Amino acid sequence: MSRRQPLPVNPISAAETVTIPPTIPRLESGDLLTRAQFEQRYDAMPLLKKAELIGGIVYVGSPVRQKKHARPHAIAMTWLGNYFAATPKIDIGDNATVRLDEENEVQPDAFLRFEVGGNSRVSVDDYVEGAPELVIEIASSSASYDLHFKKKLYQRFGVREYAVWCPEERLFYWFRLNERGRYTAVKPDSKGVIRSRVFPGLWLDVEALLAGDAGRVVNMARLGLASPEHAAFLND
């Protein structure tokens, strides 16, 4: 009785074997992930511009509108950029990833941080780890999670000053950590100016900001840079 002959096998060496990587799921708002899972999925979506992990929950950013976000963001960066250019001791970030812990990875619209002696550092893979000293968010409205979940998060991790600008509602909020580690609201002075306590000489004309008047915002920023407090900070 004859045996059935085996089918011919095409010899393939181990080096020639092709391994098809598993599909990495997309990031979706509401996903419950670890920071490692979040970063893996974010890296696999190069066209995605903003996503955050807060308390282990994913928040994916919406498309960015010009008047409600992009232009205000640019004005805020112009204001901070003037200060950064004149103050060698600090670092600036624009939509940079900030790792707070294993369940919280945020992407603030803008921040300032101390390069030395602050609460954060830049990791070997070039991410900020720890809380910057000043964070600014551009929010769609006062109902945004920037003024709720993220405010509590930044308070818990010790962001010393936190500002939220809601352009559509013409609202601006500035919070400062008090001695008990709680945020208190900061109001403009009699001239309509808020002066940072963390970054001496960082002055903001709030009414000019709400009006979208970049020229007036920059003029006040330059006055702050010419102040004795900024000079003392540089010489400290």
Task: Let me know the CATH homologous superfamily of the largest domain.
Answer: tt1808, chain A
Main structural class: alpha+beta
The CATH topology of the largest domain corresponds to tt1808, chain A
Instruction: Provide the domain count.
Output: 2
How much of the residues is beta strand, in percent?
15-25%
- What is the count of DSSP helices, taking H or I runs of 4+ residues? 6
- How would you describe the shape? globular
How does the major sheet shape up?
6 strands, mixed
Number of strands: 14
CATH architecture of the largest domain: Alpha-Beta Complex
Output the radius of gyration: 24 Å
CATH domain class of the largest domain: Alpha Beta
Task: Please provide a written account of the structure.
This protein is α+β, with helices and mostly antiparallel strands. The protein folds into two domains: 43 residues, no CATH class; 172 residues, tt1808, chain A, CATH 3.90.1570. The protein is built from six helices and 14 strands. The strands form four sheets. It has a six-stranded mixed sheet, sandwiched between helices. Helix 2 packs parallel to helix 5. The longest helix is centred in the N-terminal third of the chain and has 20 residues. The protein is globular and about 60 Å long. The protein starts with 34 loop residues before the first helix and ends with a helix. The N terminus is likely disordered.
